[in-house]
């Protein structure tokens, strides 16, 4: 107990600031733990077939190639990218993730099979159209889970930040 008290006097209980995520160029592979993620672009789009878009909203998409580098199929690929500094998004996480080749909504990504994906957020249509956005790539660490005593992918953290130009692909 005395050691705990002493460490508190010298800053041992202060939160440790996490280092900033390193900047990465568009098109470069980022190691995200169980994923290799390559952000290739972002765009605004209007209606998309088969997807429900709220009134007064548009789709904001981030395009990325994601490869599952784990030994098993994974369903948490929706957590691999996030946006920062984009006003008017309806949710923090993407509402949908689509496979670009067939517009399907995958449940799992299989090991060793890279997929070109579109991560879709709803954005209020009245927001100004940004020329560039910051996309963050998230990863996890493979380590022993102290509760279940099994090896797991845990501890989500930002692995990279990419400044991406935005294309306006809305019709009309």
Report on this model:
With 172 residues, the chain is mostly beta strands. It has one domain: Immunoglobulin-like (Sandwich), CATH 2.60.40. Helices cover 5% and strands 44% of the residues. The protein has 1 helix and 8 strands. The longest helix is centred in the first third of the chain and has 8 residues, at 2-9. The chain starts with a helix and ends with a strand. The model has no long low-confidence stretch (mean pLDDT 90). It comes from Plantactinospora endophytica. This is DUF4352 domain-containing protein.
Gist?
The chain is mainly beta and 172 residues long. It has one domain: Immunoglobulin-like (Sandwich). It has one helix at 2-9, and strands at 29-31, 35-45, 57-68, 81-84, 96-99, 115-124, 132-144, 151-168.
């Amino acid at each position: 107990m005395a050691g705990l008290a002493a460490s508190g006097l010298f800053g041992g209980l202060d939160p440790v600031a996490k280092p900033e995520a390193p900047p990465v160029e568009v098109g470069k592979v980022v190691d995200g733990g169980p994923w290799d993620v390559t952000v290739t672009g972002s765009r605004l789009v209007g209606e998309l077939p088969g997807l429900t878009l709220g009134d007064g909203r548009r789709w904001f998409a981030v395009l990325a190639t994601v490869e599952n580098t784990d030994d098993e199929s994974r369903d948490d690929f929706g957590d691999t990218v996030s946006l920062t500094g984009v006003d008017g998004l309806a949710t923090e996480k993407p509402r949908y993730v689509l496979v670009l080749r067939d517009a399907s909504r995958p449940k799992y990504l299989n090991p060793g099979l890279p997929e070109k994906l579109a991560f879709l957020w709803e954005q209020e249509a009245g927001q100004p159209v940004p020329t560039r956005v910051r996309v963050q790539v998230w990863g996890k660490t493979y380590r022993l889970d102290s509760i279940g005593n099994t090896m797991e992918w845990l501890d989500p953290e930002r692995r990279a930040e990419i400044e991406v130009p935005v294309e306006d692909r809305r019709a009309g």
